[in-house]
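Protocol step 4 of 6: record predicted structures for both targets in the notebook before any analysis. Target 1:
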Amino acid sequence: MSSTTLPGGTWTLGDLSVTRVGYGAMQLAGPWVMGPPADHAGALAVLREAVELGITHIDTAEAYGPRVTNQLIREALHPYPASLLVATKVGATRDEQGGWPPARDPQSLRRAVRDNLETLGLDTLDLVNLRLGDAEGPQPGSLAEAFETLVDLQRQGLIRHLGVSNATAEQVAEAQAIAPIVCVQNRYNLAHRHDDELIDALAAQGVAYVPFFPLGGFSPLQSEALSAVAARLHATPMSVALAWLLHRSPNILLIPGTSSVAHLRENVAGAGLALSPDDLAELDKIGR
């Protein structure tokens, strides 16, 4: 399968064209995104299969593991294909309890960027998202100091493109007033529709929107309407949820995660499910 046959086609992030169906590498680390995977060879196989399927957008973070996911990506795929964009995040670290404490002071951000460069084996990071908020979601407050630090690293040639993650609409606008961004990565799915207005505004600007937890998070989406549409189409609810996201707006890029080659293939195939206007109307009611 090539990128031309992947569901949804492609989207341009800055000067880079990526498949709208990507892959999120978070689940390659151990339980609760800590430590090494139970199946090291299997993790490498998933990454290689993603590229073999034609996926050109892989999402990661130095905090996954920590360091584990980046090292797996490097082992599996380096030297990287010219068409592959590896996006990472900075702004949070890990503690011994498995928490995600913020790390957005300038020193921490500079260290995180250099750590990402080292573990991924790169001289320049394709895309760095500044992670804001906390585990509960976006939180109000200025991102200026943190984002300006990343802009400075971009000027030094260490970062190619910038984005924000777990951000409010006001923080997105504040970032854009400082420097161009190519994407926003927030929680969004059929049942969590808080960013509908933001998605439409970004689409008009040519800025990508990358939903994390597109299938509801660690607990899959549960909805009678979703199950009914899936049964009618002889598909899984997860396939319908992914396909709906591709239909929702052309600027939405998917990064569903998995540690299974078979599940990766199912996600890619499921995202290409055809949804009728009646299906879409029924699904649109879930999060409203």
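Target 2:
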Amino acid sequence: MNKRIAEIFTALGCQPSSQARGLPVHCPADGNIIAHLPQDTSATLESKIQQAQGAQRIFCRLKREARAALLEHYAAALREKRELLAEIITLDGGKTPKEALGEVNGSADILIKTIKDATLPEFNGMLRCKERPPVGVIGLITSFNFPMVVAHWTIAPAWLAGNAVLWKPSEKTPLVALACKAIFDKAAGAEADLLHVLIGGRDIGQQLVAHERVDMISATGSVAMGQSIKKALASKKNNRVRPILELGGNNGVIISDKMSFEHLEWSVKALLNSFFGTTGQRCTNTRRLFVQRHRYEKTVELLEGHIRALTKDKWDEYGYGPLIDADAYRLFEQGKKRAAEEGGEIRFGKRLFEKERPQTFFVEPALALIPVHTAVMGDEVFAPLLFVAPYDDLNQAIAFVNTPANAGLVNGIYTQSQAEADRFAAENEAGHSVINSAKGTGTSAFGMGFGGNKASGTGEILNAADPLRPFTRDEHYHRIAQNKDIAMDR
């Protein structure tokens, strides 16, 4: 195990097991192997499920306040160790220090915000609470790009609703999950079995999904992974609870000519966060840009200027670092090649630091200028590659953004015509419509819940109006109202 990783885990009060032939964990920033981890098996999965079930049966009987206290203690522990956790995310996933620290802080914030969002306001002097039976054991599968915060979108409401969680992180970024487990064990004490971590690849993930004593699945990953999960759940007896599947998005944006020049400049700059962000490795990145023909050349000129200005000293502003691995780089190169074969012109997109760091995959952001809408724009390239094409009228542009089945997460428009904005919102098929967003398609859900349509996802999570509902059963509701002004024995 890498010396610094060992030091961090020692500072967290634990030492993860290491195996010479275990799962190799690479650091994307230098290409070195930083750990070999023992992988879970069918036997360890059974053991962890049994432990989680036992803990859940006790935990679900506690009052909401007691369950909330666990989240509060854990959030405080994450904040106390935030610098160490951020360093693990940087080493494990290649994120810039600023973005890694933001992810840790965001995870702690989600735990507290979930408590607030799930609390009904008092009414006529009555404290109110609505309880439903918890699901039981939640199987959680997370992707490499947000190895901590996305997990806590599920963990926070799942625990508050009275469930236990088995967390299978991406095999590309497992160390932060182990660190979170170590921190949780100390914060939770006797309730430590409410969280278990599964280390391994696709096989252990498939076993988790198919297991009859896992009552619900919450997963983030590719469209193909989501299809595999749906197929497995269809043949499973214990599948009454709808899964939450967040499966990426081939997100499209329209730039209208119904705007001033100043607003055009602002719009292009606003897009940068969702073009460059996390090196194009976010589900909410802008992948496709459709520009009204009269503004096309100017928009391309502005984009090129911003790419030239993205020198290494500005990477942290956007969370721009290395691609996660060689496979990600291969898909980036394939996307550029296919675009060129279909008549596109590729600008930028060079590999960087190849001589100095031959086992890493740093790249320039790339533009693929496509003269007409083509099939290649239906492929989601999980990298900083932006397809840019002109359009003639709004009907055509809306049809373009809606075309791929995988374009069901976030689509957006930049315009100063309310009529255009209304048309777009009415006809957009994605789960989110963003209009003149300061962060492109990377904008938050603004308390409306987060989820995709079509092939981009199933279910809703994060900031939902009723955050516990996806993690409870609808057999019955238990509504509790208590007068806050009556003194009670303690």
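Step 5 preliminary note on target 2. The chain has a mean pLDDT of 94. Residues 157 and 467 are 6 Å apart (CA to CA).
Proceed to step 6 after PI sign-off.
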